[in-house]
Amino acid sequence: MTDTPIITREGGPPGVTPEQLAAVITKTIPLRRRGTPEEMAKAALFLASDDSSYCLGMELMVDGGMTQLVNPYLT
């Protein structure tokens, strides 16, 4: 989850505010915080720069550790 205005928009489950939903999701992130747009941009800039010239066919996960967890709801 990236901390952008879209996470505070309406449209979630009835009776749950967007802030409450964001707080619940944030608790599931191993780093216990939402990512920033700047962190996402830095990852993209790395892949677009010469610093990543030896990276080939890889995935750069910028998710606060979420992919390191086993989600019982997805298995």
Describe the structure.
It is a single chain. The chain has two helices and no strands. The chain is elongated. It has 75 residues and is mainly alpha-helical.
Count of domains: 1
Query: How many helices in DSSP terms?
Result: 2
CATH architecture: Orthogonal Bundle
Might you state the CATH topology name? Helicase, Ruva Protein, domain 3
**Share in helix:** 25-40%
Sheet with the most strands?
A: none
Number of separate strands? 0
Question: How large is the radius of gyration?
Answer: 15 Å
Short description:
This protein is mostly helical and 75 residues long.
What does the secondary structure layout of this molecule look like, with pairings?
Layout: H1 18-27, H2 37-48
Sum up the structure in keywords.
single chain, 75 residues, mainly alpha, Helicase, Ruva Protein, domain 3, 0% strand, elongated
